[in-house]
Amino acid sequence: MLELSILGFLFDAPLHGYELRKRITALTGHVRPVAESTLYPAIKRLEGAGLLVRTTEPGAAAAPRHVLSLTEKGRREVRRRLAEPGDRDVTDENRWFTVLAFLRHLDDADAQAAVLRRRLTFLEEPASFFYEGDRPLPAEELDDPFRQGMLTIARATSRAELTWLRDTLRSLDG
Q1: What pLDDT is attached to residue 52?
Q2: What is the DSSP annotation of the chain?
Q3: Predicted pLDDT of residue 31
Q4: Model pTM?
Q5: Distance separating alpha carbons of residues 54 and 148, to the nearest angstrom
Q6: DSSP of 19-47
Q7: Hey, what CATH class is 2-125 in?
Q8: Which of 11, 25, 116, 156 is a good FRET partner for 93, with 20 to 30 A between their CA atoms?
Q9: pLDDT class for 1, splitting at 50, 70, 90?
Q10: What are phi and psi of 107, to 5 degrees?
Q11: How far apart are CA 76 and CA 155, in angstroms?
Protein backbone atom coordinates (compact mmCIF):
# COMPACT_ATOMS: atom_id res chain seq x y z
CA MET A 1 0.00 0.00 0.00
CA LEU A 2 2.97 2.31 0.47
CA GLU A 3 3.76 2.07 -3.23
CA LEU A 4 0.14 2.77 -4.18
CA SER A 5 0.15 5.77 -1.84
CA ILE A 6 3.33 7.12 -3.42
CA LEU A 7 2.02 6.62 -6.95
CA GLY A 8 -1.46 7.91 -6.08
CA PHE A 9 -0.26 11.15 -4.55
CA LEU A 10 2.17 11.72 -7.43
CA PHE A 11 -0.71 11.12 -9.84
CA ASP A 12 -2.24 14.27 -8.35
CA ALA A 13 0.88 16.42 -8.65
CA PRO A 14 4.69 16.31 -8.55
CA LEU A 15 5.95 16.44 -4.96
CA HIS A 16 9.23 16.49 -3.10
CA GLY A 17 9.89 13.65 -0.65
CA TYR A 18 9.06 15.60 2.49
CA GLU A 19 5.65 16.68 1.19
CA LEU A 20 4.95 13.17 -0.08
CA ARG A 21 5.79 11.71 3.34
CA LYS A 22 3.45 14.22 5.05
CA ARG A 23 0.56 13.24 2.77
CA ILE A 24 1.12 9.51 3.21
CA THR A 25 1.37 9.95 6.97
CA ALA A 26 -1.92 11.88 6.96
CA LEU A 27 -3.54 9.00 5.05
CA THR A 28 -2.08 6.01 6.88
CA GLY A 29 0.13 7.26 9.70
CA HIS A 30 -2.41 6.49 12.41
CA VAL A 31 -2.06 2.83 11.47
CA ARG A 32 1.43 2.55 10.10
CA PRO A 33 3.81 5.48 10.47
CA VAL A 34 5.95 6.13 7.40
CA ALA A 35 9.64 6.26 8.22
CA GLU A 36 12.22 7.70 5.87
CA SER A 37 13.96 4.32 6.00
CA THR A 38 10.83 2.82 4.42
CA LEU A 39 9.75 5.63 2.10
CA TYR A 40 12.96 6.36 0.26
CA PRO A 41 13.80 2.74 -0.66
CA ALA A 42 10.23 2.41 -2.02
CA ILE A 43 10.75 5.58 -4.07
CA LYS A 44 14.02 4.17 -5.42
CA ARG A 45 12.29 0.90 -6.39
CA LEU A 46 9.54 2.79 -8.22
CA GLU A 47 12.10 5.01 -9.91
CA GLY A 48 14.12 1.95 -10.95
CA ALA A 49 10.96 0.41 -12.42
CA GLY A 50 10.45 3.54 -14.53
CA LEU A 51 7.25 4.53 -12.73
CA LEU A 52 8.51 7.88 -11.49
CA VAL A 53 11.31 10.33 -12.20
CA ARG A 54 13.25 12.66 -9.98
CA THR A 55 14.19 16.19 -11.03
CA THR A 56 16.17 18.76 -9.11
CA GLU A 57 14.84 22.25 -8.44
CA PRO A 58 16.58 25.06 -6.62
CA GLY A 59 15.69 25.20 -2.94
CA ALA A 60 13.86 28.22 -1.55
CA ALA A 61 16.49 28.97 1.07
CA ALA A 62 19.12 26.27 0.96
CA ALA A 63 19.90 23.03 -0.82
CA PRO A 64 18.20 22.00 -4.05
CA ARG A 65 15.03 19.92 -3.75
CA HIS A 66 14.34 16.65 -5.50
CA VAL A 67 10.87 16.65 -6.99
CA LEU A 68 9.18 13.35 -7.87
CA SER A 69 6.82 13.00 -10.83
CA LEU A 70 4.97 10.07 -12.35
CA THR A 71 5.91 8.81 -15.77
CA GLU A 72 3.23 7.68 -18.20
CA LYS A 73 4.15 4.12 -17.23
CA GLY A 74 3.54 5.11 -13.60
CA ARG A 75 0.10 6.49 -14.45
CA ARG A 76 -0.81 3.23 -16.17
CA GLU A 77 0.46 1.29 -13.15
CA VAL A 78 -1.72 3.30 -10.77
CA ARG A 79 -4.76 2.55 -12.89
CA ARG A 80 -3.84 -1.14 -13.11
CA ARG A 81 -3.41 -1.45 -9.33
CA LEU A 82 -6.71 0.30 -8.74
CA ALA A 83 -8.59 -1.80 -11.30
CA GLU A 84 -7.12 -5.05 -9.95
CA PRO A 85 -6.76 -4.72 -6.17
CA GLY A 86 -5.79 -7.87 -4.31
CA ASP A 87 -8.25 -9.58 -1.99
CA ARG A 88 -6.56 -8.08 1.09
CA ASP A 89 -6.82 -4.62 -0.51
CA VAL A 90 -10.59 -5.07 -0.52
CA THR A 91 -11.04 -6.86 2.81
CA ASP A 92 -8.56 -5.02 5.05
CA GLU A 93 -10.05 -1.68 6.08
CA ASN A 94 -6.75 0.22 6.10
CA ARG A 95 -5.69 -1.13 2.72
CA TRP A 96 -9.20 -0.44 1.40
CA PHE A 97 -8.99 3.21 2.45
CA THR A 98 -5.78 3.56 0.45
CA VAL A 99 -7.48 2.12 -2.65
CA LEU A 100 -10.49 4.35 -2.05
CA ALA A 101 -8.31 7.45 -1.66
CA PHE A 102 -7.13 7.11 -5.25
CA LEU A 103 -10.00 5.30 -6.99
CA ARG A 104 -10.94 8.51 -8.79
CA HIS A 105 -7.80 8.03 -10.92
CA LEU A 106 -9.47 5.04 -12.51
CA ASP A 107 -11.21 6.84 -15.38
CA ASP A 108 -13.77 4.17 -16.21
CA ALA A 109 -16.94 4.27 -14.08
CA ASP A 110 -17.58 0.57 -14.79
CA ALA A 111 -14.11 -0.31 -13.50
CA GLN A 112 -14.66 1.84 -10.40
CA ALA A 113 -18.01 0.13 -9.83
CA ALA A 114 -16.42 -3.32 -10.18
CA VAL A 115 -13.98 -2.50 -7.37
CA LEU A 116 -16.78 -1.13 -5.18
CA ARG A 117 -18.87 -4.25 -5.84
CA ARG A 118 -16.04 -6.44 -4.57
CA ARG A 119 -16.02 -4.48 -1.30
CA LEU A 120 -19.82 -4.63 -1.13
CA THR A 121 -19.76 -8.42 -1.55
CA PHE A 122 -17.19 -8.71 1.22
CA LEU A 123 -19.22 -6.53 3.62
CA GLU A 124 -22.44 -8.42 2.94
CA GLU A 125 -20.92 -11.70 4.18
CA PRO A 126 -21.69 -12.51 7.83
CA ALA A 127 -18.62 -11.77 9.92
CA SER A 128 -17.50 -11.12 13.45
CA PHE A 129 -14.31 -10.67 15.39
CA PHE A 130 -15.43 -13.57 17.58
CA TYR A 131 -16.64 -17.03 16.58
CA GLU A 132 -18.14 -20.13 18.09
CA GLY A 133 -16.78 -22.81 15.81
CA ASP A 134 -17.47 -21.45 12.32
CA ARG A 135 -20.44 -19.33 13.43
CA PRO A 136 -19.84 -15.59 13.83
CA LEU A 137 -21.04 -14.37 17.23
CA PRO A 138 -23.25 -11.27 17.24
CA ALA A 139 -22.74 -8.65 19.95
CA GLU A 140 -25.94 -9.71 21.70
CA GLU A 141 -24.46 -13.16 22.45
CA LEU A 142 -21.31 -11.84 24.14
CA ASP A 143 -21.02 -11.39 27.89
CA ASP A 144 -18.05 -9.04 27.61
CA PRO A 145 -19.23 -5.38 27.32
CA PHE A 146 -15.97 -4.36 25.63
CA ARG A 147 -16.29 -7.00 22.93
CA GLN A 148 -19.94 -6.00 22.56
CA GLY A 149 -18.71 -2.45 22.04
CA MET A 150 -16.27 -3.55 19.36
CA LEU A 151 -19.01 -5.35 17.46
CA THR A 152 -21.53 -2.54 17.92
CA ILE A 153 -19.08 0.02 16.53
CA ALA A 154 -18.02 -2.28 13.68
CA ARG A 155 -21.66 -2.98 12.79
CA ALA A 156 -22.50 0.74 12.68
CA THR A 157 -19.44 1.46 10.55
CA SER A 158 -20.31 -1.38 8.17
CA ARG A 159 -23.91 -0.16 7.84
CA ALA A 160 -22.70 3.33 6.98
CA GLU A 161 -20.25 1.98 4.43
CA LEU A 162 -22.86 -0.33 2.90
CA THR A 163 -25.21 2.63 2.46
CA TRP A 164 -22.44 4.69 0.87
CA LEU A 165 -21.39 1.83 -1.43
CA ARG A 166 -24.94 1.19 -2.63
CA ASP A 167 -25.59 4.90 -3.23
CA THR A 168 -22.30 5.35 -5.06
CA LEU A 169 -22.86 2.26 -7.19
CA ARG A 170 -26.31 3.58 -8.18
CA SER A 171 -24.74 6.87 -9.26
CA LEU A 172 -21.94 5.12 -11.19
CA ASP A 173 -24.44 2.83 -12.90
CA GLY A 174 -26.40 5.89 -14.04
Answers
A1: 96
A2: -HHHHHHHHHHH--EEHHHHHHHHHHHHTTTS---HHHHHHHHHHHHHTTSEEEEEE--SSSS-EEEEEE-HHHHHHHHHHHHS--HHHHHSHHHHHHHHHHGGG---HHHHHHHHHHHHHHHHS---SSEETTEEPPGGG-S-HHHHHHHHHHHHHHHHHHHHHHHHHHHHT-
A3: 62
A4: 0.86
A5: 50
A6: HHHHHHHHHHTTTS---HHHHHHHHHHHH
A7: mainly alpha
A8: 11
A9: confident
A10: -65, -25
A11: 36
Single-letter code of the amino acid located at 72: E
Distant-in-sequence, close-in-space partners of 10: CB < 8 Å, separation ≥ 6: 20, 52, 68, 69, 70, 74
Counting every residue written for the chain, the total comes to 174
pLDDT score of 29 more than 70: no
pLDDT digits (tens, 9 = 90+) for 68-89: 999 999 999 999 999 999 999 9
pLDDT, tens digit, for every residue of 82-123?
999 999 999 998 899 999 999 999 999 999 999 999 999 999
Residue 131, φ and ψ in degrees, nearest 5: -130, 155
**In the prediction, which pLDDT does 34 show?**
77
Distance of alpha carbon 174 from alpha carbon 172, whole angstroms: 5
Query: Using CA atoms, how far apart are residues 127 and 151, in angstroms rounded to an integer?
Result: 10
